[in-house]
Design brief:
Helix content is about 20%, strand content about 30%. It has two helices and four strands; from the N terminus they run αβββαβ.
Length: about 80
C-alpha cells in the first residue's frame, strides 16, 4: 500500500498541465492502477481543477465472476 501512495505522490508532481477541448482548463490528475490479483483489477481516477472527476473500474477474476459478468467496466462521476 505504501508503494501506491508513493506512486500517487510522484504522479501528482510529474503530471504536466494540459488543456483539452471540452475539458476543464488547467492540470488534470489521473491515476491508472492495475493488479490482476485484486478486484477491481484495474481502475482509473481522473480529477479536474474544479473538483469534479471520474472513476472507472474493471473487475478482476475472482471465484464466481463468470456467472456475474467478469471484466465488465463500471464508471461513475465524482463530485
Amino acid at each position: 500500500m505504501r508503494g501506491v501512495w508513493l506512486a500517487l505522490a510522484w504522479a501528482a508532481m510529474a503530471m504536466p498541465a494540459r488543456g483539452e477541448a471540452g475539458a476543464a482548463a488547467g492540470p488534470v490528475f489521473e491515476v491508472d492502477y492495475s493488479n490482476p490479483g485484486l478486484s477491481p483489477s484495474h481502475w482509473v481516477l481522473t480529477l479536474y481543477p474544479d473538483g469534479s472527476g471520474h472513476f472507472w473500474s474493471e473487475r478482476g477474476s475472482v471465484a464466481g465472476d463468470a456467472a456475474r459478468g467478469a471484466g465488465q467496466g463500471a464508471g461513475q462521476d465524482v463530485a
